[in-house]
Amino acid sequence: MSITSITVRIADDPVPRKFVGRFAWTLNELIEAGDRGVTSFERPAPRWSHYIYRLRRDGVGIVTTDEKHSGPYQGTHGRYRLSVPVTVIDRVAS
Predict the structure, then answer these.
(1) Which residue, 94, 87, 85, 93, is CA-closest to 7?
(2) What is the number of domains present in the chain?
């Protein structure tokens, strides 16, 4: 089951916001992850950084923490977490 649409309230903003497609999926992943957050290192998906950028632009508070990883391609990756309360009003899944 994949989320195709999600309507939420962000922090104290009384105006509901609706996200669709991959932006809805990404926001749902962040909500479900809670304090542990999400990372493209653990959940490979196309264009995580773009989805996060667009959600931030649309008013969703998201913080990024840099984390190191080892292995043959060692380096860093970002862990994304919601920094504001997000209340789900409606979810549509396909």
Answers:
(1) 87
(2) 1
Domain containing 9: what range? 3-93
Residue 8 tokens read as 């939420």
CB 19 within 8 A of CB 55: yes
Are 49 and 77 within 8 A, CB to CB?
no
Higher per-residue confidence, 45 vs 91:
91
HEC secondary structure over 16-78: CEEEEHHHHHHHHHHHHHHHHCEECCCCCCCCHHHHHHHHHHCCCCEEEEEEEECCCCCEEEE
Interval 12-36: pLDDT, tens: 999 999 999 999 999 999 999 999 9
